[in-house]
Amino acid sequence: MRYMPLDRGMDLNLWRKHLRHVPDEVWERLEIETLVLADNDLTEIPTRIGVLKHLRMLDLGHNALTEIPEEIGELTGLRDFLYLHDNRLARLPNSLSHLKALRYLNISENTFQEFPDAVCGMKGLIELRATDNQLSRLPNCLANLTRLRELHLRNNKFTTLPEWIHDLSEIRQIDLRGNPLTSLSRALVELPKLEKLDLRWITTLELPPWIEDLEARGCAVYR
């Protein structure tokens, strides 16, 4: 196999190589910090992935995965990005809650009906993308993500947001496009750093008058 390295020797890019399974040679690269396995028709990730202790970024997007092995929770050095989007995932292992240094998580374009509890333990998250699923509620434990700056929930089944949303005091952007919203929590006004609230593609919502208060202080409300 001919590897296609990224910019650094610590990075391994196997994007769109039509692999169908992860080559055994990958598990011998114990020093790598970036591993890209996106768009390879993968249906499973071997439990051996837990040996890659130096990984900072892992891209498993655009595959056909139905589950993620518990051993990914052993990759506590993951701090930059974890891409799991565009798969067939309905759940995540609880072990992912060990990834407390992770700053970016993308679980979009899967089949989640319930928000994975493991995400609540990822207290280092700055950006969370969960678009194009079947989610209808945010669990209370997500209030633990006090460093979160961006929350992307486009094209789900949310009808409102919980009152505890004001606990996410660092949030800058909330994307709710394409949800069947019937109400908005006034707690949004209490978010001191909110810069962008995206409400486009929503036909079920009558905007409350306090939206003008958000806009008056400089928050861009897209509708």
Quick recap:
By secondary structure, the chain is an all-beta fold. The protein has one helix and ten strands, in the order βββββββββαβ.
Would you mind describing this structure in some detail?
With 223 residues, this protein is mainly β. It has one domain (11-222): Ribonuclease Inhibitor (Leucine-rich repeat, LRR (right-handed beta-alpha superhelix)). Helix content is 3%, strand content 13%. The chain contains one helix and ten strands. Strand 9, helix 1 and strand 10 (220-222) form a beta-alpha-beta unit. It is elongated, with a radius of gyration of 19 Å. The model is unreliable at 1-7 (pLDDT under 50).
CATH structural architecture: Alpha-Beta Horseshoe
Number of strands: 10
CATH superfamily, by name, is Ribonuclease Inhibitor
**Biggest sheet record:** 10 strands, parallel
- Count of DSSP H/I helices: 1
Q: Strand arrangement, largest sheet?
A: 1-2-3-4-5-6-7-8-9-10
> Over the alpha carbons, how many angstroms does the gyration radius reach?
19 Å
Strand fraction equals 5-15%
Helix fraction, binned, reads: under 10%
- Catalogue the unreliable spans: 1-7
> How many distinct domains?
1
Order of helices and strands: EEEEEEEEEHE
Structural class designation: mainly beta
**Amino-to-carboxy terminus distance:** 50 Å
Mean pLDDT: 95
Please tell me what the overall shape is: elongated
The CATH topology name reads: Leucine-rich repeat, LRR (right-handed beta-alpha superhelix)
CATH class: Alpha Beta
